[in-house]
Structures are given as structure tokens and as C-alpha cells.
Design goal:
386 residues; mainly beta; Methylamine Dehydrogenase, Chain H; five-stranded mixed sheet; four-stranded antiparallel sheet; 29 strands; globular
């Protein structure tokens, strides 16, 4: 952890994206996976104004914008094998795929769901073969919908029909989906019903596919994989709780819960500052350590270390954002960090960087309200019980 502390302390703002004419909250960030030996070239950001923006990874120069009226775009992911292919789930019941190399605004491929589907989460597996999207609850139905993603790199433009659905395992909005980083058949889903489900999609039916159900007892806001060989699953909740489970212990007598914190804001001691919300998590492979990212409504970013004994603050990044940070992407290869927030700014942090831009930090908080589907951390404004 000392090395991580040093890395964090050395991070400084290297680049700051210029504010667009239509400022928007930056809700999700992904960087393109390095093709061959090159470093990643692109950053894609999902925004609250129903758009995906693409930037140059090193300069943060704006390259492209994709809009999806009338639907709302939720989440953004690059393909693993082709760094110019980017996806987003859409509330119009599709997952759309764009090719950054093309000048067109049109999606090169559309993965269509069923008529009532409203997609609010999605992911693509590590082999780029399967896409999975999660729906909002409509009447009594909540679905995980799967498609065969092969052929995307050939830019076939036909709409793809689903391979099938899972419909029994959640009973409320599926807020997050996350495929296993190295096993293409494993996927974890999280929902406002409090359940975190792990599936093996190679199995013939949903009952057999459901390996594990963990209950966070609260609405799930973020999920991820961690631990050696990624045999652990963790989640964060909309009321700033944290749960961490060891799936490898399923067939043993050992308890599967590694840690359950009802409110991380009360569990982490931060001198001269506070913790208002959680943004997400990150498993550091080299250090074999799970970290949480949290922050304050004024834009400070806290890195929190997880162990089975509890949570502890590793360090804080200040002076970058002027409002709540909503998204991040930490590149462990070059130790750089990308952050996006409600101040409409995309920041690139690098070790020992010097910011050359003369652009002033915007102190404004955007007036435009985020669409209802993006859950704002209302609890961050409540005073905490002493």
C-alpha cells in the first residue's frame, strides 16, 4: 500500500478537456484497450445530455460525439480486440456500436432487445463474443438480455436479435453488469433489489447458470471483480454501503462474506475532510489489493484501501474538480487516472505531471438536471450522525 500511496501522491493534473458548448455531467469513462503494442489511443465518456464523447487519450482533444435521441445512453465500453469500436446501452431497448474511424454519426451495429426493454446497464465479455444488457423493471419483468457480438469489427450494419434472456434472478432494475476480466463465461449483475448474482453463461439454462446469489440488503450502484484470479466479487450501494464476497468459498464451510460496511462514510476516518459518496472500485493486480474511490461534493477524490479488517484512507487528490466526481478510469500500466464530474470536466492525472493549460478551473455546478435514471447521491448532502 505504501507504493500506492506514493503513486497517488505523485499524481498531478496533466490535461483538462475544454468545456463543450453544452456542459453535461460525465457519468462513465472507458479507455480503448491497447491494440498490439501501442498504448490506448482513445477515451470515451457517457454524458448526461444523451451523448457519448470521444477524446484523444493523451491530449484530451475532442474527436467525436454520438447522440442517440430520443433514448438515453447508459454506460460506455470499448471492444477488447479493436480499439476503435465503442458500445453504449440505450433506453430505447438497444445496445449501439460505433466505429471511431468512420465519419458517420450512425451506429455501425445495433443490438435490439424486446419491445418493452429499457436498458440501463451493459457489458461485453473479455473475448468480445457476448454482450449482456440489464433492463429497468417494466410491470413485473426484469431481464438480462444476451447477444452474439461477433462480426462487430466487420461493421455489419444489420440489427442483431438476442440470443436469449435471464428473467428469474432479479425482481427490480438491473443497475450494473460486469463480465469477469479473464473468464469470458462468467458475469455478475447487481440490482436495486439488493442482489448480486454470479452466472456461468456456458450452462444450458438460467437455474444452472446461477452460481451464487449475494445479498447487499440495499440498492446496488457498482459491482466488480477482485482478488487473485478474480475469485471475489464486491459491490457498492446507493446509500454508500460496501459488500465484499469470496466466491471461491462457495463449496467450503468458510463464510463467503469478507467485509460488509453499512455506511462507508462513517467507517473511514479522514482528517480535515469528509467522505460524501462512493464512485466505484478498482482491483490493483500487482499489489493484490482492492481500492474504493470516493469523494466530496467539492470535487476532492479519496482513495480507500480494503482489507478484511476494514477500510482505510490511502490518500486524497485535491484541486482538480469543482463538484461531485461521477466517473473514473485508472490505467495501471502507466499509472494514470482519468476522472469526470458534475463540473463537466474530464481530467487526466499523471505521475509528476505539470498542467500546461491556462484554462481556469470552472467553479460552476451545472444547472441542467441529470435524467431521472441516473441516481444522484442525495445522501451526500445530509449531515452525518455523530
Amino acid at each position: 500500500v505504501e507504493k500506492i500511496e506514493e503513486q497517488l501522491a505523485s499524481l498531478h493534473i496533466a490535461k483538462r478537456s475544454t468545456l463543450s458548448e453544452e456542459p453535461a455531467y460525465l457519468l462513465d469513462i472507458d479507455v480503448s484497450k491497447p491494440a498490439q503494442s501501442e498504448s490506448s489511443r482513445f477515451v470515451a465518456v457517457s454524458c448526461s445530455n444523451k451523448s457519448i464523447r470521444v477524446y484523444n487519450r493523451e491530449t484530451l482533444n475532442f474527436l467525436r460525439e454520438y447522440r442517440s435521441c430520443p433514448g438515453i445512453l447508459n454506460g460506455v465500453r470499448f471492444a477488447h480486440a479493436c480499439d476503435s469500436i465503442v458500445f453504449s446501452a440505450c433506453s430505447d431497448g438497444t445496445v449501439k456500436c460505433w466505429d471511431i474511424r468512420l465519419a458517420t454519426q450512425k451506429a455501425v451495429q445495433i443490438f435490439s432487445g424486446y419491445p418493452s426493454n429499457i436498458f440501463i446497464s451493459f457489458d461485453i465479455n473479455c473475448s468480445d463474443l457476448i454482450i449482456c444488457a440489464g433492463t429497468e423493471k417494466v410491470e413485473k419483468d426484469t431481464f438480462l438480455v444476451f447477444w452474439d457480438a461477433r462480426g462487430i469489427t466487420n461493421c455489419a450494419s444489420a440489427a442483431e436479435e438476442p440470443l436469449g434472456v435471464y428473467s428469474e434472478s432479479h425482481n427490480d432494475d438491473i443497475t450494473k453488469i460486469c463480465f469477469h476480466p479473464i473468464k469470458p463465461n462468467l458475469v455478475v449483475s447487481g440490482s436495486t433489489d439488493g442482489l448480486v448474482n454470479v452466472f456461468d453463461i456456458n450452462k444450458d439454462n438460467e437455474d444452472d447458470a446461477l452460481i451464487s446469489t449475494c445479498n447487499s440488503n440495499s440498492s446496488v450502484s457498482f459491482i466488480g471483480w477482485s482478488g487473485k484470479d478474480y475469485k471475489q466479487v464486491y459491490c457498492m450501494t446507493h446509500d454508500e454501503g460496501f459488500c465484499w464476497w469470496d466466491i471461491a468459498q462457495l463449496d467450503t464451510e468458510e463464510p463467503i462474506t469478507l467485509l460488509h460496511v453499512l455506511d462507508v462514510r462513517d467507517a473511514v476516518c479522514i482528517e480535515n475532510d469528509s467522505l460524501h459518496y462512493l464512485v466505484g472500485g478498482l482491483y490493483h493486480e500487482k499489489a493484490d489489493k482492492l481500492f474504493l474511490i470516493g469523494g466530496t461534493s467539492t470535487g476532492n477524490i479519496h482513495l480507500i484501501s480494503c482489507s478484511t479488517d476494514g477500510l482505510s484512507l490511502v490518500g486524497t487528490l485535491c484541486g482538480g474538480h469543482a463538484a461531485t466526481v461521477r466517473s473514473f478510469c485508472w490505467n495501471l500500466i502507466d499509472e494514470s487516472l482519468l476522472t469526470g464530474g458534475e463540473d463537466a470536466q474530464l481530467l487526466l492525472w499523471k505521475p509528476r505531471a505539470v498542467e500546461r493549460s491556462l484554462a481556469k478551473k470552472a467553479s460552476m455546478k451545472i444547472a441542467s438536471s441529470v435524467q431521472k435514471r441516473v441516481r444522484v447521491h442525495n445522501s451526500s448532502l445530509k449531515s452525518r450522525k455523530k
